[in-house]
Amino acid sequence: MLFFHPSQILFLSSLLTGTLITFSASSWFTAWLGLELNLLSFIPLISSKYNQYSSESSLKYFLIQALGSSIILASAPCLLFFNWTPHTLICSALLLKMGAAPVHFWFPSVMEGINWYQCIILMTIQKIGPMLLLTYSLTQPTALILFVSSILCSLIGGVGGLNQTLLRKIMAYSSINHMAWMIAALLLNESLWMLYFLVYALVSSSVVLIMHSQQIFHFNNLSSYNFNSPTLKLTCFLSLLSMGGLPPLLGFLPKWLVIQELATSNFFLWLSFLLFSALITLFYYLRVALTSMTLSSPKLKSSLPMTSKTTLTAIMFLNLFPILTPLSLTSLF
Fold this sequence. Notes:
mainly alpha; 75% helix; EC 7.1.1.2; membrane; translocase; mitochondrion
């Protein structure tokens, strides 16, 4: 059972309000106000005077987001005085705000210093506003920037996670890799991006829930914490492989749709980069998943509470949804 402090509920509500203002705004100024409200609400959620790492992460996050906001504001005089559209500057600022390559360097270090629940907010809710604003700034130059950013996200997200032993950094590089697919979906079809983002949020939340319940932060923790339950082992295994996009689990479905759209549009070079990086991402998730399945020691006992069987069963069925859907349809008809 989760219990939040009233101040956390207040800041979480204003964070969601800032996101709603951003993607329902009718002008760039209102969208910028929504981004600022989102930023000022997230800083108190991740900062803590008892944890120097979270304070460092909140400072890094504030400086980067303030830089992105200042670039958006600086793009306004370009239209007034130089008479050229500032979409390139706005696109670059939005890529910086959501941690996409090549301006991704702050994202893994911020993820490293915050807890798991704050990680899921940073990986999901904090990307909604900037990604939707990218659709408003689409021109031929910005489409080229997004194409290059998608390829760089795929390569950096794949290769960057190979030598990591901290699970939050692995999740950060995986999020950068998923951003490559989301940018591709955003350029192809906005509804496809919404489906991809929804599935990504569900699958990553299932992984975070398991990691938080056992307080696992390091690769070595997988062999020493409370993985004695076979249901917990299997659920963690399926969630990690679904996060990596292994068919026929739920995480593969939106990738399949993006692959189909890219192949139909003849973007085979772009598709080859995305598929190559997805295999690398699947490799390091498979390494974590096999560790959680095979190296768990029954001799070591933990006082951490077990995740409820209902939650584990729901997560398992969520990741097995593509397999179970044809079976349920067959039974209906």
